[in-house]
C-alpha cells in the first residue's frame, strides 16, 4: 500500500463519457464463465474464505437497529470466528477482523464505543437508500457522520442524474460529497439495479471516479436487484481503465445479496482476474454484507471437521 495515491478529482470529460459503450452479451458470457473458474484451487478455498473475512464491511442497515445490535455486530467484527475455529485453523497469531463495519448515522456512536479505533466505521449518508433529501441535508449528514467518528462514508448518488443523462449534475454532486467527507474515504453507491443499462453503470462509474470517489459500490442492499457479476465486471473494468488513464487506484465494493461463501469466492476471483492481487486488499476491495460472515463461518467449520468437500460441492470459484 506504500505507493497508494488517493484519488483526486479530474475534469469531467463529457466527450469520453458519451462514447462509453458496453458489450452486454460479452459481459454476460464472461460472467457465466466465472462460475466455472478454477483460478482458486480447491485446497486453497479455506484460505481464501479467511481472506474474504478481512474484506467484509460487516453491515447492519435496518429500521429496527438498536445500539445493542450494533455493539454485538462490532464485537463480531473484531472476533469474526469462534475461538475453536481460530485454533483449528491455526489463526491464533493472526489478528483476524472484518474490513470495517457499516451502519446508519445514528448507530455510529455505539460502534465507536466498542471499536475504539480498532476498525474503520463506514456510515451510510446522503439520505440512504433513496438519496432524495435536499442537497443541503445530504452534505450536512456527511459532516455529522464524519464528526461522529465515521472514517468512511457510503453515499448514494441521485439516480435521476443518470437516468436523464445529466452527467454534469452527477459530477457536481459527487464533488460536493467528496469535499464534505474531507479525510474520510468516500464510497459512491450507484444503486445499479435502478440504472437500467450496463452502459449507464459504466458511465456513472466513470463520472463518480472523475469526481473523486475512493470506491465505487454497486448497491444499497435495498434495490430489487443488487450486486451481480455482469454489473461488477462492468464496474471493475471501468476501474481498470481509469487506473490506466490517470494512475489512480479506485476501490470496488459489491454489496447487497452477497450472502454465501460461494458468491464471495466468485467476487475474489473476479477481482484477481480483472485487476490483480493488489485489488484483493481492504483498501481497494470490500464486500458489503450482513449475512456473508455466517455462511463463511459455517463453511470453515465444515472444513475443519472434514466435511468441506461436500459443503463446497457447489462452491467452486
Ligand atoms: O451495503 C451493504 C448492504 O446493505 C448489505 O446488504 P445485505 O443485507 O443484502 O447483505
UniProtKB/TrEMBL annotation:
SUPFAM superfamilies: Aldolase
EC number: 4.1.2.4
Family: Belongs to the DeoC/FbaB aldolase family. DeoC type 2 subfamily.
Keywords assigned: Lyase, Schiff base
NCBIfam families: deoC
GO molecular function: deoxyribose-phosphate aldolase activity
One Pfam family, short name: DeoC
Pathway stated in the Swiss-Prot or TrEMBL entry: Carbohydrate degradation; 2-deoxy-D-ribose 1-phosphate degradation; D-glyceraldehyde 3-phosphate and acetaldehyde from 2-deoxy-alpha-D-ribose 1-phosphate: step 2/2
Protein name as catalogued: Deoxyribose-phosphate aldolase
Organism for this UniProt entry: Duganella lactea
PANTHER family: DEOXYRIBOSE-PHOSPHATE ALDOLASE
EC category name: lyase
Substrates-to-products reaction catalysed: 2-deoxy-D-ribose 5-phosphate = D-glyceraldehyde 3-phosphate + acetaldehyde
Amino acid at each position: 500500500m506504500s505507493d497508494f495515491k488517493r484519488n483526486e478529482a479530474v475534469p469531467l470529460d463529457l466527450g469520453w463519457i458519451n462514447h462509453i459503450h458496453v458489450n452486454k452479451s460479452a459481459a454476460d458470457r464472461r460472467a457465466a464463465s466465472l462460475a466455472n473458474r478454477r483460478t482458486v484451487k480447491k485446497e486453497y478455498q479455506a484460505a481464501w474464505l479467511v481472506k474474504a473475512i478481512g474484506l467484509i464491511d460487516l453491515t447492519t442497515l435496518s429500521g429496527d437497529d438498536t445500539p445493542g445490535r450494533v455493539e454485538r455486530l462490532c464485537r463480531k467484527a473484531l472476533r469474526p470466528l469462534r475461538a475453536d475455529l481460530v485454533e483449528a485453523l491455526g489463526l491464533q497469531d493472526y489478528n483476524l477482523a472484518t474490513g470495517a463495519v457499516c451502519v446508519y448515522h445514528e448507530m455510529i456512536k455505539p460502534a465507536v464505543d466498542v471499536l475504539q479505533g480498532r476498525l474503520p466505521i463506514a456510515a451510510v449518508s446522503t439520505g440512504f437508500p433513496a438519496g432524495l433529501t435536499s442537497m443541503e441535508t445530504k452534505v450536512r449528514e456527511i459532516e455529522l457522520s464524519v464528526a461522529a467518528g465515521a472514517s468512511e462514508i457510503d453515499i448514494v448518488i441521485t439516480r435521476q442524474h443518470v437516468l436523464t443523462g445529466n452527467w454534469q449534475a452527477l459530477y457536481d454532486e459527487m464533488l460536493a460529497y467528496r469535499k464534505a467527507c474531507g479525510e474520510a474515504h468516500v464510497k459512491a453507491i450507484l444503486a445499479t439495479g435502478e440504472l437500467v443499462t450496463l452502459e449507464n453503470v459504466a458511465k456513472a462509474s466513470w463520472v463518480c471516479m472523475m469526481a473523486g470517489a475512493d470506491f465505487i459500490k454497486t448497491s444499497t442492499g435495498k434495490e430489487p436487484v443488487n450486486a451481480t457479476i455482469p454489473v461488477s465486471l462492468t464496474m471493475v473494468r471501468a476501474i481498470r481503465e481509469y487506473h490506466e488513464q490517470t494512475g489512480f487506484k479506485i476501490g470496488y465494493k459489491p454489496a447487497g445479496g452477497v450472502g454465501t461463501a460461494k458468491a464471495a469466492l466468485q467476487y475474489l476471483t473476479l477481482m484477481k482476474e480483472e485487476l490483480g492481487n493488489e485489488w484483493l486488499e481492504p483498501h481497494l476491495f470490500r464486500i458489503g454484507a450482513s449475512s456473508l460472515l455466517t455462511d463463511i463461518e459455517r463453511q470453515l467449520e465444515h472444513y475443519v471437521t472434514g466435511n468441506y468437500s461436500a459443503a463446497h460441492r457447489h462452491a467452486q470459484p
